[in-house]
Amino acid sequence: MKACVGLFVTARRAGAPAAAACAAFLGGCVGNPFDSAKIDPASPIATEVSRASRANTDFPSFSEIPAVPTDVRPLRLYGQSARDIRSAQADLEQKTAPSTWTLQNTDAFASGARSAVGGADVPVDPQATEAFADQLRRRATPPPSPSR
Predict the structure, then answer these.
(1) Phi, psi angle pair for 72, to nearest 5°
(2) Which positions ≥6 away from 43 have C-beta within 8 Å?
(3) Read out DSSP for 118-140?
(4) For residues 16 and 20, what is the distance between their CA atoms, to the nearest angstrom?
(5) b vs e for 21-47, b when ≥16 Cβ sit within 10 Å of the residue's Cβ?
(6) How far apart are the C-alpha atoms of 19 and 133, rounded to whole Å?
(7) How far is CA 147 from CA 139, 140, 143, in A?
(8) In whole angstroms, what separates CA 19 from the centre of its chain?
(9) In a 3-state reduction of DSSP, which class is residue 4?
(10) Is the dihedral of CA 110, 111, 115, 121 positive or negative?
(11) Among 114, 128, 131, 142, which is least packed, fewest CB within 10 Å?
(12) What angle do CA 77, 79, 84 make, to 5 degrees?
């Protein structure tokens, strides 16, 4: 495929004036608009703003960046740890997948638990249960409405 040379020549000629126009347009942004900005004295943070704007602070330089620590593990060991965790996850999922285990000897376990607690519970007398329910029903009735 051959491109038309005329398109590129035209674009090159139009690029120089466009670049000059962009440079002139962006040249107006060189000044700092915050130098001449007025602080509203009624603002609750006016004193803090004026103090912060006058502060001659020392900004850090690139030479003040601390050196790389030597007491940390290399980056490749982080990946190895991640692979170990993934393999442990896969192993656990394989061992606990459905149909890989069943409950066995549950009756013996239940009888052992009952004997450890102190035997089977004695059934409650149905009449005592009904009397207790009646007492709760009487307590649950709302109070009479006030007389007017």
Answers:
(1) -110, 155
(2) 49
(3) TSPPPPPPHHHHHHHHHHHHHHH
(4) 6
(5) eeeeeeeeeeeeeeeeeeeeeeeeeee
(6) 93
(7) 21, 21, 12
(8) 45
(9) coil
(10) positive
(11) 142
(12) 95
pLDDT in tens, the chain (148 residues): 555 555 555 555 556 777 777 777 776 666 666 666 777 888 888 888 877 777 677 778 899 899 988 899 988 999 999 999 999 999 999 998 888 878 888 999 988 888 888 866 777 888 999 999 999 998 887 888 888 7
User: What letter represents residue 15's amino acid?
Assistant: G
Tokens of 55: 């502060």
Cβ proximity of 50 and 41 under 8 Å = no
How far apart are alpha carbons 142 and 144 in whole angstroms? 6
Q: At a CB cut-off of 8 Å and minimum separation 6, what does 114 contact?
A: 120
Q: How far apart are the first and last CA of the chain?
A: 103
Q: Is residue 43 within 8 Å of 49, Cβ to Cβ? A: yes
